[in-house]
Specification:
Layout (H helix, E strand, L loop, with lengths): L2 H13 L2 H10 L21 H4 L5 E3 L13 E6 L6 H10 L3 H6 L2 E6 L7 H6 L5 E5 L5 E5 L5 H9 L2 H12 L1
Parallel strand pairs: 1-3, 2-3
Antiparallel strand pairs: 2-4, 4-5
């Protein structure tokens, strides 16, 4: 299992409620942890994790069509020349620090650490070395940074966007 797969698994597991983790353990024949209890409003055991709660993923950006995410998500693309780049590793660690904040803002993360692959994302966004790119729901580039950014900094940038302001207002009213 490579580093990206481990991080994606970690991110998915941290996004699951405790009750679902316990249900999964019971389904596999394992006994749940002694301090884990199921509440009456817990998700039924027959629901899959995807149906009960959306999982946060860090996805490969090599063959992604970014247009699929237009108007539904805010893509964050992390480029590096190698997965061993310390800035890349720091950025991934930063993104995993506050997964709920990213999910609230409809962020989906793509990574591209192979310049030789000449992916569509690389052709469109033209990174040099490490680069963090934030795209808006409209598909436009909202931010480019040559250094890792924290989820707090990303959240502040997203929260200033007009579409995000409308989302916040709609949530308050509804």
């Amino acid at each position: 299992m490579n580093r990206l797969q481990r991080l994606t698994l970690l991110a998915a597991l941290t996004a699951l409620p405790l009750a679902q983790s316990v249900s999964a353990q019971e389904a596999e024949g394992q006994s749940p942890a002694p301090d884990a209890t199921l509440s009456e409003d817990a998700a039924p055991a027959d629901l899959s994790a995807e149906e009960a709660a959306p999982a946060f993923e860090i996805r490969d950006g090599y063959d992604v069509d970014i247009a699929e995410y237009q108007w539904t998500h805010r893509p964050v693309v992390v480029f590096a020349d190698s997965p061993a780049d310390p800035r890349y590793q720091e950025q991934i660690d930063e993104l995993l620090q506050d997964i709920p904040a990213l999910m609230t803002r409809d962020v989906v993360v793509f990574v591209d650490t192979d310049p030789k692959a000449r992916s569509a994302l690389r052709k469109k966004l033209r990174p040099r070395g490490f680069m963090l790119v934030l795209l808006g729901k409209d598909g436009g580039v909202k931010l480019r940074k040559p250094l890792p950014w924290s989820v707090r900094e990303l959240s502040r940038t997203i929260d200033k966007m007009p579409m995000r302001q409308r989302e916040i207002e709609a949530r308050r009213e509804g």
